[in-house]
Amino acid sequence: MFWNVFPCWFLALYRRPLVFLSGVLVVPLLAVCLWLYVVNERQWRVREGHDLLVAARLASRIVVEELARTRQAADAVATQPRFINALAQGDRTVLAGSLQVMVKGMPHVERALVTDAAGRQVAAVASTSPDRTGVEPAFDSPEMLDRTVSAVYVGDRASGEKAVSILRPVRDGQALLGVLHVR
């Protein structure tokens, strides 16, 4: 029965070329294109999610590495006996010299400063790079710093570049001498 109806239907469509072309060529072509679009869009979304995940992991690794390098720089300076003695005696020249060596020798360090136990700035050194407008972490009083405090924030709002800041207490035994700020 089907074989008898199909030739009649096909012959009727063949006599109308526009209906024939749209029914036999255009509609199936549109159906295939729609199906391919749906399948590809799903694949694009999966791939996009994967790419975003890879980018987020890479960004977090960069921030963790930057944080570790900055913390190592702060620890290297704050544990030197010469630096500790200079902070205890309030020798600004030795402190500025130590900070200058750190800023010049470590290109990722933009600025370093030391405050005494009362929170007053004793010495500060900045690299030649332009100052950023980011908000650095603050602390209420140096006595509150039992341990190193670190923060990651937007250092330059125009470029969205991240900055890392370390606040490290400098101690002589149990006595808090001051705080080293490294950015």
Commentary on this structure:
This protein has 183 residues and is of the alpha+beta class. The protein is built from four helices and five strands. A hairpin with a 2-residue loop joins strand 4 and strand 5 (175-182). Helix 3 (81-89) runs antiparallel to helix 4. The protein is rod-shaped. It starts with a helix and ends with a strand. Residues 132-137 have low confidence and may be disordered.
Summarize the structure.
The chain is an alpha+beta fold.
Observed structural traits:
183 residues, alpha+beta, five-stranded antiparallel beta sheet, 4 helices
Question: What order do the helices and strands come in, and which of them pair?
Answer:
Layout: H1 2-14, H2 17-78, H3 81-89, H4 92-105, E1 111-116, E2 121-126, E3 149-156, E4 161-172, E5 175-182
Antiparallel strand pairs: 1-2, 1-5, 3-4, 4-5
Helix pairs in contact: 3-4
| Uncertain residue segments | 132-137
First-residue to last-residue Cα separation: 85 Å
Strand content: 15-25%
Report the average pLDDT across residues: 79
Structural class, by secondary structure, is: alpha+beta
Give the beta-strand count: 5
Helix content: 40-55%
Secondary-structure element pattern, one letter each: HHHHEEEEE
